[in-house]
């Protein structure tokens, strides 16, 4: 295993474990106070029931990630596999989905997960940021309940929960991508810009920030760029003047960050006011969703980010037969809102649950289900996912593409695919433009 990955493990393990441990302790007393939304299959021909829990940040500062959850889960409920029930080991089972809101809070995420475990969940699915996925997975691992996570850098999920390189969790798995994929997405876009190769990097004092600071900065340097680290800032910081002055004084012409949306909104507006205008800005975790773009207005134009799922991805659901474009179009027609990348990821969680639970003799055998998850390989609406390939046990990798936000026609701003270096399945539909000329 690389020295960078060993360093990442040492850097982020302690803080995340302490946070998860505190959340786990609080969850036992809080669980009885929390409510849930039940969605049930209704096939009378089945002889048992499978319970699937789902946790995501439907309210709070990360709520943008979960904007499409209700639409996706309603679609899953209507899919024949879920509506008619699962078949496993020659028996039929109704399917119950229990949806929980983490409120963008790790303690709440742990509490509702404990409630799911207490209610007998056969599998728990979760999505969006380490503040949700890590406490959920930590409790599931400790309780022997299969769990699948997504929309979290794998290093923050894996090392952030105390794993050492090569370790295998027994019950918890995930799919998404990591720092090498961010590099493979961002660096080709940087290379297309005529710059001095000086990169302004500002990463928050949280699990995502720790992962980027420990592993991404060395990748930046190894690629021949000069890194200007603005320092670890607290989530919720309101004045970035000192950091902006540092970036200006060093003449940084490229920019990278992994902030919470409100923090980036504040920083980017201050940067514009104070004259920090990098030729290309590439950001992770923020500007993934339309609500973030409208909050910035035209300052968002030509900021680049990663995109792991879109209507342009040529993939099809194993549950509904929908293409990625049909899922995105259906969401827009039903809700009047613009598509977002999390639609595909949440849909895939329920594809994965179906694959695992219907390919064991007994879906209530949690060890068997967890074992199936760790050896799963299939292609669905998020494309090919293979848990046998790593980079670590229990992890499947997606390959993102580089996109920029542009003025839209149907909506104020639209994503344009400008680089597909990591995923040639996805066609480009625009040329990379400088964020600031």
Kindly report the CATH topology of the largest domain.
Rossmann fold
- The fourth-level CATH homologous superfamily of the largest domain is Response regulator
- Average pLDDT, rounded to a whole number, is 90
Measure the end-to-end span. Answer: 41 Å
Low-confidence sequence ranges: 1-44
Structural class: alpha/beta
How many H/I helical runs? 14
The CATH architecture of the largest domain can be given as 3-Layer(aba) Sandwich
CATH class of the largest domain: Alpha Beta
Shape descriptor reads: globular
**Any idea how many domains?**
2
Residues in β-strands, percent: 15-25%
Task: Give the assembly state of these chains.
Answer: single chain
- The level of helicity is 25-40%
Task: Give the biggest beta sheet.
Answer: 8 strands, mixed
Quick one: how many beta strands? 17
**What would you report as the Rg, rounded to the nearest angstrom?**
21 Å
